[in-house]
Write a structure and sequence with these properties.
By secondary structure, this protein is of the alpha/beta class. The chain has 2 domains: 95 residues, no CATH class; 127 residues, Rossmann fold (3-Layer(aba) Sandwich). It is built from 10 helices and 11 strands. The strands form 3 sheets. It has a 5-stranded parallel β-sheet with strand order 8-7-9-10-11, sandwiched between helices. Strand 10, helix 9 and strand 11 form a beta-alpha-beta unit.
Length: 257
């Protein structure tokens, strides 16, 4: 929908020729986008889906990332880029020095800090409607992608680190945090059992994130994925391997929409 078409639609609404809800639907579904080089920006995604377009960095050149970030920023909305290498993250920070680069999570944001009130990125609150738990320290990068994404979307999650089933007693100090949270994101590799434990103990909805952490027979996270899909504890939903972003997006929609 171009400017002329939008003006005509608004004129029709003002004169009572088109109902406001019909006009809103037409705007939401209009193919508003912009092509810049090889990057095709979806500028209307937030109206359709409740979340604006996020830049997936993996496989893109720095030039493509610059085009995407600057193009989305021109709409006046905050921009998030995920799955960035250190080189590309540093490159974006040089191009947009007002942005926020979080190397451990592979995230870059422009227009909204990923953790604006915290000097130590791991000093997350003890209580929140969303709790993120990791089975091992090796799962932390995926958990931080989920946490940074959630924070970008306006949710500040609690973080529980390195509390997998090999040492289940490590959950004990966090029982209150898990008990009061509305929703849990559980990030685990190896055999992926932690999500079943947390779902079985607390009865809250669990978004399980299998990670590619593990020895050869983990098959790059496939073993954890299948274990989570076959959880005997009810209320476990599973996202893709290493998809911290996907878990945070689902949590945001469940908690806010």
């Amino acid at each position: 929908m171009n400017a002329k078409e939008l003006d005509e639609l608004l004129r029709q609404v003002a004169q009572g020729e088109v109902a406001p809800d019909k006009a809103a639907q037409a705007i939401r579904l209009a193919p508003v986008s912009r092509v810049a080089g090889s990057v095709h920006l979806d500028l209307n995604r937030e109206m359709r889906t409740g979340m604006g377009e996020v830049v997936f960095g993996q496989g893109k050149s720095l030039s493509q990332l610059e085009t995407a970030v600057s193009g989305l920023a021109e709409t006046g909305r905050p921009v998030l880029a995920t799955r960035l290498t250190s080189e590309h993250g540093q490159g974006l920070l040089a191009l947009f020095p007002q942005g926020d680069w979080w190397p451990e999570a592979g995230l870059f944001s422009l227009g909204r800090n990923l953790s604006p009130e915290l000097d130590d990125r791991l000093a997350w609150p003890d209580t929140s409607e969303l709790a993120v738990a990791t089975a091992g320290a090796s799962d932390l990068p995926v958990a931080l992608e989920a946490m940074g994404t959630a924070h970008f979307l306006g949710i500040s999650p609690a973080l529980i680190m390195d509390a997998g089933v090999a040492g289940l007693h490590r959950l004990e100090p966090h029982m209150a945090t898990l008990g009061q949270a509305t929703l849990h994101i559980v990030v685990a590799g190896m055999e992926g059992a932690l999500c079943s434990v947390i779902s079985g103990m607390f009865g809250k909805p669990v978004i399980a994130v299998p990670t590619s952490v593990g020895y050869g027979a983990s098959f790059g996270g496939l073993a954890a994925l299948l274990a989570m899909l076959n959880s005997c504890a009810p209320g476990v939903a599973v996202v893709n391997i290493d998809s911290g972003f996907g878990a945070a997006a689902m949590a945001y929609k469940l908690l806010t929409q």
